[in-house]
Amino acid sequence: MSGRWAALALVVALGGCRTLPAPPAPDAAARATLATLSDWHASGRVAVRSADQGFSASFDWREQGGRGELGVHGPFGAGAVRITRSSAAVVIDSGNGPPLEVPAPFDALEPELIARLGFPLPLQSLRFWVLGVPEPGQPADGDGGEFRQDGWLVSPSEFQAVPGAPGPLPGRLLLVRESTRIRVVIDRWQVGAGS
Q: 3-state class of 5 per DSSP?
């Protein structure tokens, strides 16, 4: 008899364990505010597949007051790259030789990234795309979740409420341009000063 009661209690307990639905993609007002977000920290994983190669890595990205720092490293720290961005320059340091510095207005940034990484990385726009919004001041097609910008299809998903954020932020991001696919999984968000 006690086994039946235990089974019934388990069914009732499991029935009460429902996950809350994920918030929807941010509305137009929240997207406009998210695009101005200047202090945040995101960490997670990235997987890149291009015509010639594929790899996965962990990343740690901080934005604070118009300056960004993105660290990417493979398993056990292999292939570590640190990219620092300011309004004056982008510096790419892979630890192999002197760092590469690309001054503003960043016209040479994409060719340099392709030469260094072997695939295109939309670094200037990615700072906004990771927030789930198009880069302000640049043409974009689409509304709500998925959009196209600068030749890339940007698909943010699994939005989540994050303390301090003016709208939900994505937990996943898929970027596609021609044969390049970049998948981003954000394991941790922190928003606000001191992120």
A: helix
The pTM of the full predicted model, rounded to 2 decimals, is 0.82
User: Which range of residues forms the domain containing residue 89?
Assistant: 22-190
Q: Does any domain span residue 128?
A: yes
d(CA 59, CA 122): 15
- Please give the pLDDT value at position 22: 62
CATH (domain of 170): 2.50.20.10
Range among 81-95, 104-118, 135-149, 151-165 with highest mean pLDDT value: 151-165
Residue 186 lies in a domain: yes
Is 7 among the domain residues? no
Long-range CB pairs of 167-170 (<8 Å, 24+ gap) are: 167/26, 167/27, 167/30, 167/31, 167/33, 167/34, 168/22, 168/23, 168/24, 168/25, 168/26, 168/30, 168/132, 169/34, 169/131, 169/132, 170/130, 170/131, 170/132
pLDDT at 141 over 70: yes
Specify the number of domains making up the chain.
1
Give the DSSP H/E element, type plus range, for residue 43: strand 40-49
Residue 39: how many CB atoms within 10 A of its CB? 16
